[in-house]
Structure formats: C-alpha cells, structure tokens
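REQUEST ID: PR-0412
SUBMITTED BY: lab tech R.K.
PRIORITY: routine
TASK: structure prediction, single protein chain
INPUT:
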Amino acid sequence: MLVLRVKACSVNPIDTKVRGGVYDDFANYYEHTPPLPQIIGFDGAGIIEDVGNDAQGFKPGDEIFYAGSPIRHGSNAEYQLVDSRSVAHKPKSLNMVQAASMPLTWTTAWEALVERMEIKEGEKSGILIVNGSGGVGSVASQIARFILKLPVVVTTTSREETTKWSKDLGATHTVNHREDIVKQIKDLQLDPPIKYIFITHTPASKYIVDSAAICAPFGKVCSIVQDKEIPMYGTEWMAKSLTYVWALIGTKPFYHVDVDSHGKILKQLAEWLDEGKVKCHHQQTLPLTLEGLRKGHELLEASGVMGKVGLSVDAGGVEEGKAFM
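STATUS: complete
OUTPUT:
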C-alpha cells in the first residue's frame, strides 16, 4: 500500500451517483464501502508520502497517477491510501491535474476494447463509439485508431466543437446521436463494416436496439452503462450471433481478481503519452475545494461535458493543506 498526498483528482459520473446513494453497478455496493461520511473520488495524481512493505518499485517522493478502489475512501482528500498495484509513475509530459484526468477513463476504455471485446491490433473491422466526446469515448477513439489501428472509427457527436474534437482524437467518421443512427451508418457505406459497438452513454436500451441493425454478424457490443431492460427480443441479436458484454473498471478490485493489471495499463499509458502517441483529454480545471467539487458535479449532471474536468490544489489560489477547510 501507498500513502499519497493528493495533488489533483478528476470528477466522473460515478461520483454523482455514489454521492446521491443511487450507484448500482454493484448490487450490494453500499454494504462494502466505508461508513458515512464516505470520501469519494476515483482517480487522481499525487506524491508518495510513505510505502508499505509490499510496495515494489515506488519510494517516498515519487509522483504517481492512479485509479483507486471503488470500496475505499477516494481521492477527494488531502491524503489517500492506495494499492500500489493500481499505481504508475506520472507521465513526465503531463502536469498533475492532466495526469489525474486519465486513469479511470483510459482503464475503462482499455478493458472494454482490448479485454472484453478482444479487438486485435490491425484488425480489418470498424467500431462505433457512443458519445465520442465524453470522458471514456474520447480515449476509446484513440485506443481504437492509434493503438489498435482500426481502419474505421465512428463516434456519435451532436455539436460542431465535439465533432471536430472527436475527429482530432481518432474518429474517422461521426454521426449525430440526435438523429437516426442506423440510417446514418448505412449511408456511410463503410468498408469494413461495424463489427464492434461501445456504449458509453444512456439510454443504453436505445443503443442496444440500434446495435442489432448496425453490427455485422458475429460482432460484439460492450456497455459501461445500465438500463432497466435489455431489449434484444425480436431484433437481429440472435440471427447475427452477436455478443453482449459489460465492462466495469471496479470489477477487479471489488472481487480481488487480476488486481495488478491496472498498474500495468497505466504504466503503458504513461509511455504512450510521453511519446505523443495518444493525447490527454483534460479540458477544464477547478480548485480542489468543496466549492470546486460542487461545481464539477454540477457540470457532469448538466451533461454536455467534453473530455474531463480536473481539480487541483494549485488552482484558484488555494493554499495547500487548506483545500477542504
């Protein structure tokens, strides 16, 4: 384990759900979390203050970035206890708040595309990413295009600025999610066709129905969002032998399975960031204060956030050590 002095963190949609007592990706989530008041925050960056006997490759003073456990106290704090296996040295090319914005979304997208849908590098297939300008979507497009080198990467966007940004981050095509997606995909006459679909935004039920019409036979659809029903009956889901899978970054730490993989994923990410192979999607910085956190949550709940919102102890003239006073 590592004791960290938190320098920056980011806000994610999961934060607002946990705060509201409605987070249900785990059926018994609140039975495993610390008693109230629970400190939330799921990724961050900081400086190591102390190391446990089991921590390998880290020492006090190291700058690191990480995604913490979903059932421990989080990164919206001055200090945090983090499993050393979920940590990597901070990319040299990023500042603290930029680094803090990457771990949760990148690891989620990586697990979805590489581990759950099992997309192979150089595969002659296309992918559709729902919400290409969102936190997860804007790194998933980079993984698909720049790491896996897929020839067709389609994202959904609805505004001129989000469309341009998504194309800068790897999208070869975009479609408007406020219009008929199935028709728009058909009109593109893609070659190769869409074999993979990554759902990162609600309503999941709508995109699950659309997936049946869009996906090529034997394709795979992965979602990180829930809905009250999975409407597959009466569609082409069975006729096309499609596969539906979930991706949840918290599965490994929650069930203590393959727990060292997150650190490995982040170590590789740091190298790619420093090489310029992929880009940080951080877009806005708020002070790491109670007011800053409230503002960050308000932005997420209003929807329309492009990329990631980060919070830093160095923003807004905050004196370190007094962020939450």
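NOTES: Residues 12 and 44 are 11 Å apart (CA to CA).
REVIEWED BY: pending
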